[in-house]
TrEMBL record:
Annotated InterPro entries: LRR_dom_sf
Domain of life: Eukaryota
Organism phylogeny: Eukaryota, Fungi, Fungi incertae sedis, Mucoromycota, Glomeromycotina
Full protein name: F-box domain-containing protein
Length: 475
């Protein structure tokens, strides 16, 4: 029987990177499969289970094991035999917070757990980080949020960081760490910062040394910090910008980034959109994704922004609070955003004609998220309009229920929708997603679920999912 070459097998198994169950099965096939699979299996700390950390503890050097023993930390390991591989060396994506969470869970599950689990977690975490920093050959992604100050990063000069592409960190992290990082790492493509009381000078220095920064994210909650120096160092070549703020911040600086392809803004109050009157006139000729979540700027400003920048938009999400929907905004989308593939918006009960115009103007729509309940269209009206006026590209409908709005969709209405969808030409398998907040959804009705399961078997429904506001994919 012909055997797959190592290169070919590696290409295939790469598709299982986030499928830990099947990847684990591949480890057991034979020596070649194991050798290739193990590198992928141990690549991302975010995918590790507590069993992975038991194995890592078995890999600790004697010096580290002695530290655990002296602190009366006894953790059982999978085997007393020497490890088959240098597992820590395979890690490319490292998250200190994930290490702490999994080790805390591991210690809490010990039969002979110590009364001082919190302190023991920090001790074990320190030794595991030393192991990683001694063994990792080339780190790609580093996550440092929620970083306890009692943990000392092992000297980073021992780690190959020239290929580090993604960094998530807090702004007041050690300047010395950032200075060391800036000496070795000049090719970050993505930087995500949580702003705390101060912004480290070392962080500003790190930003100024970057030659290929494309994505920048900044989150600040209930903290007033001067951002001037940090913002001035951002390269104008950015193509993705994500700002999540709970305080006033002038947005005029965004006009510098004329190469933006994706802009995300999350504010809690309309008054937080300081200087959006200046941003409304900015031209971003490459902008494809616009997400304004939470609150919105004044509608007349947003309308002007879409008139200038809507032509190339592929995805548009405007607000997700009940007060942030306006007929003029939807009319602008219908007129100035002809190339949209994904849209999230609300239509009030007297705006059915506007919804028809949106489908007429946005003929390439593939996904639409429709806000339902309260002052917005009910599920029946929304689904009837979608199936009647949407074009051939649409395949995903997301019904987004506000707060405690309960489903009022009757089984006969649901059946009628699926019959009409079946006759949709050309007929595409449908993805139907329900997003609600602890409310009765249509799936609570047994008759509805019987209908849905029937159409799943017929191939009319490709995916049906009920989720909540915490699901990042659909929120």
């Amino acid at each position: 029987m012909a055997q797959l070459s190592a290169d070919c097998l590696n290409e295939i198994l790469e598709y299982l990177e986030d499928d830990m169950v099947n990847l684990h099965s591949c480890l057991l096939v034979n020596h070649l499969w194991c050798k290739i699979s193990v590198r992928i299996f141990w690549r991302n700390v975010l995918n590790y289970k507590t069993s992975n950390f038991r194995t890592l503890i078995a890999c600790l050097p004697n010096e580290s094991k002695e530290i655990l023993y002296n602190n009366e930390i006894i953790i059982s390991t999978p085997t007393s035999n020497p490890p088959l591989f240098n597992y820590a060396a395979f890690c490319k994506f490292l998250s200190v917070h994930q290490i702490i969470c999994k080790l805390e869970l591991l210690l809490n599950n010990q039969l002979l757990k110590s009364y001082n689990t919190s302190n023991n977690t920090l001790i074990v975490t320190q030794e595991i980080i030393k192991l990683f920093f001694n063994e990792i050959s080339s780190l790609k992604k580093l996550f440092l949020w929620k970083y306890p100050k009692k943990i000392n990063l092992y000297p980073i000069e021992k780690v190959c960081l020239k290929n580090l592409s993604e960094l998530h960190c807090i702004s007041n992290f050690s300047s010395e760490f950032f200075y060391q990082l800036s000496q070795k790492c000049h090719n970050l493509s993505s930087l995500d910062i949580t702003v705390e009381q101060v912004i480290s000078e070392g962080l500003i220095d790190l930003i100024s040394t970057q030659k290929n920064l494309q994505s920048f994210g900044m989150t600040q909650v209930n903290v007033l910090t001067d951002l001037t120096l940090l913002i001035e160092k951002l390269p104008i070549t950015l193509i993705k910008l994500n700002i999540h703020y709970d305080n006033f911040i002038s947005l005029s600086f965004i006009t510098r980034f004329i190469n933006l392809q994706e802009l995300q803004l999350f504010f809690y109050f309309e008054e937080d959109f300081v200087d959006f009157d200046k941003l409304q006139y900015a031209i971003f000729p490459k902008l494809q994704i616009l997400k304004i979540q939470g609150a919105c700027p004044r509608f007349e400003l947003l309308v002007k922004f879409l008139e200038n920048n809507g032509k190339n938009l592929k995805e548009c999400y405007i607000g997700d609070l009940e007060d942030y929907s306006d007929n003029s905004l939807n009319l602008t989308i219908a007129k100035f955003c002809p190339n949209l593939r994904k849209l999230s918006t609300g239509f009030k009960y007297n705006e059915l004609e506007t919804m028809k115009l949106v489908f007429g103007g946005c003929q390439y729509l593939e996904t639409i998220k429709i806000w339902c309940g309260g002052k917005f269209l009910n599920e029946k009206e929304a689904l009837e309009t979608v199936v009647k006026y949407s074009h051939e590209n649409l395949y995903e409908i997301i019904l987004y229920h506000f707060y405690y709005i309960q489903s009022k969709l009757l089984p006969e209405d649901l059946e009628s929708f699926f019959i009409n969808w079946t006759n949709h030409v050309p007929q595409k398998s449908l993805s139907l997603v329900i997003v609600n907040y602890d409310a009765d959804s249509l799936d609570k009705n047994d008759k509805n679920m019987e209908i849905i399961n029937n159409y799943i078997e017929l191939g009319v429904i490709k995916k049906f999912k009920v989720t909540d506001f915490n699901d990042d994919e659909f929120s």
